[in-house]
Amino acid sequence: PRCPWNCPAARQFLTVPRPDLNNLLADTLGRDRIRLGTHVTGFTEHDTHVDVHLADAEPLRADLLIGADGVYSDVRASMVPGSAAVGHAGNYAWRAVLPSGDDERPEGTFVTIGAARTRGGYTRIAKGRTMWWIGQFDAGELVGSKKDRALRRARNVAESGWHGELLRMIAATPEESVLENQIMLVPELERWTTHRVALIGDAAHGLSPHIAAGGTLGMEDAGVLRAELASASGTAAALARYESARRARFAQVREHSVAVEYANGAAESAERYTAFTHWMLTTAPTT
Fold it and tell me: What pLDDT is stored for residue 13 in this prediction?
C-alpha cells in the first residue's frame, strides 16, 4: 500500500535478475557477512562505534553505518526525526510487465511526452517481457479501476493514432498486475551524516523519477563516499566532506528536476532534459 517507484513490490516487476552480478558482489563482500530477512530499525552512536539496531536480533557493533535504505529509510528516521517521505501532490505512476506483443517496436518508446503533463511509454526488459508505464503530474481525481486510470492517462500520449500499441498493452494487462503509486519525495534534510553514519541514495535525497537519475545519483554517492573514506583523514572528516560535496551537486539536480517538471510541452521538456543530461555527463564527480 505504500510502494514508491523503487520499492520491493515494484522491483519484482521492473528489474531483471542478474545472478552473475549478484554472485560477484556477494563473493567480494563475503557471503557470511550478508544477513537476510531482517532490517535496521535505528542506531545509537558512540564516540568509538555505532550500535545498529535490528528488528529481530541483537544490535550490531560497527565502525560505520551507511543508510542506503530508500525513501522510507529507518536510518534517516533515526538520524533526522520527522523526515518521513511525503507524497508529491498529484504525481502518480502506473506500470506493469507483460509478455511482449507482435506489434511492439523492439527498441520501445521510452519516453513520450503527452498532453496534460503526462508521460509514458514501454521498453523490453528481458526476452519476451515488456514493461509499460504512465506517469502524470496533477493527475486529479482517481476514478475507476487502476487499469482504467492508466488507460485514461495513456490516451494523452497516444493522440493522433500514435502509441496504439501502448493502449493495447494496458488493455491486455490483468487488473491485479497493474501497479499504481503516488510518487514519494524525501524532504530537504538538515543533515545527511553524523560522525559515524551516512545516508546515500534515495535515503538522503529521493526525488520524483521523471528525470530518471536516482540510480546514477546513488552510485555517485557511493563513489564519492568510498573515495573520502579511503583518504588519510578520520571517519568524521571523511563523512563531512562527502556530505558537503554531494549537497552542492544535489542542489543543482533539484533545480533541473523542477525545470523538467514544469516544462511547457514536449519540446521544452526535451530541451530541459537534454540540458540536465549534458550537465550530469560533463560535471560527473571524479572518484
Answer: 38
